[in-house]
Amino acid sequence: MKTMNKANNAKPIKKYCYFCTNAIKEVDYKNIQIIQKFLSSYGKIAPRQRSGVCSPHQRQLAQAVKELAICLYSPIPQNSNLLLIS
Ligand SMILES: [Zn+2]
Q1: What is the rounded distance in angstroms from the CA atom of residue 32 to the CA atom of residue 36?
Q2: According to the CATH classification, is domain 15-85 in 3.40.1280.10?
Q3: pTM score, two decimals?
Q4: Collapsing DSSP states into helix, strand and coil, what is residue 39?
């Protein structure tokens, strides 16, 4: 007789892409509030298995995080209103 393990019978929770469900076509690097949802406390990008983001949006998200990091570490020009957008 097979022993039944409760952990094996549990169905995995289906995760849906945040960007697809909210009809966001392009991940904007200036939208810091949304990007922060997919970053760990160490600033690393959450894997798809954990966040549930689809592969096209995961690639856009990775690019947006890199663009944001460049913006944050670069000196701000005097006439820039980048920080006023978000
Ligand atoms: Zn998606």
Answers
A1: 6
A2: no
A3: 0.72
A4: strand
Domain spans in the chain, listed from the N-terminal domain onward: 15-85
43 CA to centre of ligand 1 in angstroms: 21
Residues 83 and 76 sit within 8 Å (Cβ to Cβ): yes
If you measure from the C-alpha of residue 60 to the centroid of ligand 1, how many angstroms do you get, rounded to a whole number? Answer: 10
Could you tell me the distance, in angstroms and rounded to a whole number, from the CA of residue 31 to the centre of ligand 1? 16
In the reported structure, the alpha carbon of residue 18 is separated from the centroid of ligand 1 by a whole-number distance in angstroms of: 7
- The pLDDT tens digits of the residues spanning 17-76 come to 999 999 999 999 999 999 999 999 998 999 999 999 999 999 999 999 999 998 888 776
